[in-house]
Amino acid sequence: MTEHQSPDVTPVAVIGLGLMGQALAGAFLGGGAPTTVWNRTASKGDALVAAGARRAGSAREAVEAVGPDGLVVLCLTDYDAVREVLEPLGGVLAGRVLVNLTSGTSAAAREVAELMARTGGAYLDGAIMATPDGIGADDAAVLVSGDPAAWDRYGATLRLLGGGTARIGADHGLAALYEMGVLGLMWGVLNGFLHGAALLGAAGVSAEAFAPVARHGIGTVAGWLTDYARRVDAGDHASPDATLETHLATMDHLVHESEALGVDAELPRFVRELARRAAAAGHGGDEYSVMADVFRGRVGAPS
Ligand SMILES: NC(=O)c1ccc[n+]([C@@H]2O[C@H](COP(=O)([O-])OP(=O)(O)OC[C@H]3O[C@@H](n4cnc5c(N)ncnc54)[C@H](OP(=O)(O)O)[C@@H]3O)[C@@H](O)[C@H]2O)c1
């Protein structure tokens, strides 16, 4: 144990030192965890080795180097890479805990959980809710799902990655599902902002001037989520603050404004088409939260 190491922090092997893997390894190292690193392109580990990490010559050597109490962390491009790295390891993962922070689907995460179960190891799947420069900060979070005993053993080490790091359930697929939900949210918000910036740009207004107004609008909408979530869970979209028909009328304005200004109108047309399907199915007087039922395929199937 180093002088900075908390007694709860364990040795860690980080396999995959891309932009994110380097940040993860740096946070483990900075938090006092004895850290062994391996990357296919070895030079990406040079700065970490200079900062005190141990370099392994292979993924197998990295797993062996941290010993039976060590945590094995994977962060690779995708699940093809995960399979390519894990399959040759076989029995060396027996009795070990693997945390996979590679992005992918819930089905892919559950497949790795089965592979680890067959190997005699435990598995946690994780979704990183931060960019590399945010790793280790109080507001960074890694959402982890899977084996409860593995979380009890390694939660303190994983919390070095961000103050909001938490386990969200036993189903190994949950972290990936949360990540998908947040990614959809991210693209929805970013596309809305960038489309709005294109509209204002047509009148000579810079994106920088629009940004504070957009940020305020995002905050206003974020304030609606608690009520929307309650409505979605209860299946109750009555007594709206604004009806779906009112939303549809303003969607028309957005489509027409975009067309008039030569701004691509495909995104607002698509959003309007989804809402029209719900209205055609008799939900025009409901709160906009009823769109959850369109996404669930319960109302307004495409004609
Ligand atoms: N960057 C972010 O902001 C961010 C945020 C959240 C989540 N993530 C997720 O984190 C994961 C890694 O992202 P990144 O930004 O670090 O990507 P990256 O910089 O492109 O790094 C990819 C890593 O995967 C390794 N790799 C790919 N194929 C491999 C194979 N067949 N065998 C062994 N190693 C292989 C690469 O090794 P080489 O160096 O040898 O090519 C590299 O270490 C992704 O799933 C990403 O979605 C990233």
Automatic annotation (TrEMBL):
NADPH-dependent reductive aminase-like C-terminal domain span: 171-296
UniProt GO BP: transcription elongation-coupled chromatin remodeling
Presence of keyword Oxidoreductase: yes
Superkingdom classification of source: Bacteria
Start and end residues of each 6-phosphogluconate dehydrogenase NADP-binding domain: 12-163
Organism: Streptomyces genisteinicus
Family label: Belongs to the HIBADH-related family.
One CC-aspect GO term: chromatin
Protein name in UniProt: NAD(P)-dependent oxidoreductase
PANTHER family: CYTOKINE-LIKE NUCLEAR FACTOR N-PAC, OXIDOREDUCTASE GLYR1-RELATED
Tagged with keyword Acetylation: no
Record's keyword terms, sorted: Oxidoreductase
Molecular-function GO term, any one: oxidoreductase activity
